[in-house]
Predict the 3D structure of the following.
Amino acid sequence: MRVALFLTCVNDTLYPDTGRAVVKLLTRLGVEVDFPMTQTCCGQAHYNTGYRHEAEPLARHFSDVFGEYEAIVTPSGSCGAMVRELYPRMGERARAEGRGDSLAATLAPVVPKTYELTEFLVDVLGVTDVGAYYPHTVTYHPTCHGLRGLGLGDRPRRLLRAVKGLELVELPGAEECCGFGGTFALKNADVSAAMGADKVRNAASTGAEVLCAADNSCLMHIGGTMARLSTGMRPVHIAEILASTEEEPAV
Amino acid sequence: MSGRDRILGRVRRALADVPPDEVPYEQALQRDYLREHGARSVEETVELLAENLADYRAIVHRTTSKELADVIGRLLSERGSKSVLVPSGLDAEWLGRTDAGRADDRAESTPAELDRVESVVTGCAVAVAETGTIVLDGSPDQGRRRITLVPDHHICVVRVPEQVVSSVPQALERLDPARPLTWISGPSATSDIELDRVEGVHGPRTLEVILVSDSSEGRG
Amino acid sequence: MSGTYLGMPAFPKAAHEAVRNETLRGNLRHATHTIRAKRATAVAEVSDWALLREAGKRIKDHTLRHLDRYLVQLEESVTAAGGTVHWAADAGEANRIVAELVKATGESEVVKVKSMATQEIGLNEALEAEGIRAYETDLAELIVQLGKDRPSHILVPAIHRNRGEIRDIFRSEMSEWGRPAPEDLTDTPAELAEAARLHLREKFLRAKVGISGANFMIAETGTLVVVESEGNGRMCLTLPETLISVVGIEKILPTWRDLEVFLQTLPRSSTAERMNPYTSMWTGTTDEDGPRNFHLVLLDNGRTDTLADEVGRQALRCIRCSACLNVCPVYERAGGHAYGSVYPGPIGAILSPQLRGTGSEIDASLPYASSLCGACYEVCPVAIDIPEVLVHLRERIVEGGPATREGNKVVLKPAKGHAAERAAMRAARWAFSHPGALRTGQRMASRTRRLHPRTLPGPGKAWSGSRDLPTVPAEPFRDWWQRTGGGKGGAK
């Protein structure tokens, strides 16, 4: 199976470790991974801030870059939801604006074959035990676009429970938004910070060493808040936990 | 231009995108939700009604038609009611065992006069088991809407099983929208203080529901 | 809408104060978390919830798409049943109609059932100006009216007040309006409810005019429906001689049977009950039972403008249950007043800028008052995709474009104050369309990473005021990939 890694611009620039972890994990599971070098950004930040028309060329570019692959895997719930939920909507809106079917037709091929990482593991590869080892106490925060947008359900937790050495503790108020929300974090910084502080307090109350999520954008906000509140907890992307083995443990 | 023409004109312009030949209503709408929730015997449905009424703090009694007058008499006397409002078509036998003074449901009565009456006894149009609701439709055994509102104590008689339905959809089928309808689920309540439910504001603070079955069935 | 909200500051500014108010935060957290859990239980009892939700959405969509037809049908049925129908294009018209109707009765006071529509048009203030005193009779509305406060929640307008604050308001203010609160009033909810009962009873018993809204109006039968808990609604709907109902035109349902959906979904979504204590249904007037005169005032006030927007019109499906407020993490922390409207929370953030337009500071800021977490959409009993409409309205603000205001098609200019953001978005789009440029930028960031501060000055403080910045890695992923051939040969 020829699988393209859609890493996302945020991960590419700021979190290359997550990208390396996805490659390591998928390779270990026998998947041939390619990273198309011309990939950039799915356009989510543009779209969600109200710049849909600026997002359109990015979506077309995405489709050009990834259209030929059998599957597109991304370690980001929100970027996955952008492609799966919002690309079809962009096509519909263009049609409603009298611009024909061209955008919808261009974007259609990538929509059904884009998978968030944990979905790809559980639904496509059919594995929950990926042979990982991670001897730490972990609490899991389901990010909103993964939870409510893509409907990831308990897939991430099932994967985490199968990790050797990992103790999973439930996060109180897990399904509440962490307060990131893209430009919301800047435009409504006070409310965003209050939500982040509550999320971090809840996480700290579990006594876990690590707060895990499947989206580095949210982890950037939660982790930045953790550092500021000096909780001693670490934010870690789920790919890095699942990539960790006894032979090559994650730090 | 009248307000009517202006608004209708705006609505029509706003809906310019809607094709004129859209599928008719009942075809467009699939009513594929349930007519009732779960399969229950008649007796189980009555039991559920009793449970749900009690869950919202109505006081539920069960009796037979033969003993109904005794039960009503006892409830009024336990309450210490000296006066009771009576809808014009209420079965006279129901109040055969009480000393409370009768106040008739009359158009001339003022709200202040009704406020001096302590209790009211009525029948009902239908009762809904799944929600613990009784519905009044202003029939002669139920009277004007205000008589079950102003007095602080309402005794409502439900004939079981014939007046009981399982669900809201079934209740609507039995009701006539041309009549003034009052759906009652427990005594007056509010959630306005910290979103916590407290019983007892403006409507009757005590709601007693008597589920009465035919004497021949011999239910105690 | 009501003048009360003119000149409200933008949402972030109002929220800035609210998040620092510990009492408010505590009150809201307590109340919203209580109702959240209860709602989940009430909804879980109904196995066909998803089907009811879908049916509710379809019924409302169909009605909206043929609203002209149903409005005319409703008018016919209400008139045939003995009611009189009035049409009000805006708040001013509605207030004038109601004031004239009240004056025609010779009365100078009215009792009111809680109604969002009359709040929206500022009816009480308009009546006051005409020498008519309007008494709010819903407990929470009473608390707001006595406290000279503003509502902060759709269902529970005084949700921002805890029991101690309510007791203080009752003690100090009730005597101004009528029967005073008992001297020894405590803060137990039962005693507070009893005080309200006694205070309002004298008003109910002497009232000659009642004013209400309605939750539903049935086009086929002319029936109006009011869903309530306390019995104040029944008092206002049945004791007075004249009843005036002010109802938004979107509250129509085509058929009697449609109630079977909404009488199941509304109570469970709203107060988290299987059924609310009282629901009143009336069709015109009934001989010798209830009001002799019934007037229905159909209100537009921005609804047709909202209807003209193909994406935004779904907001008109709203049945005012307030489930979206109760689950919203932003509402919980910012409180209802920050939304600068009688419609707070997620639904308010999409309703107010459509009903009022995006011209004011507050209305232009509301579409951004959300992290787009989607919790509101998940609980909405008529499946309003609130995040979708929020994003759509953001687009209207930054890009401008066609809209409808007071029935006229207009072309909005892009809002001021977004110039820097617009430039940044364009630049980012350009860079993302040119992978080479993106790569240059990433490398520059990596090379200068030791110089990056952990906090930022100026506008960057919005992030770094509460959060550390991430550390830029030594190389972006794509450089590693290229350098190592995709990590083959064990390169790290």
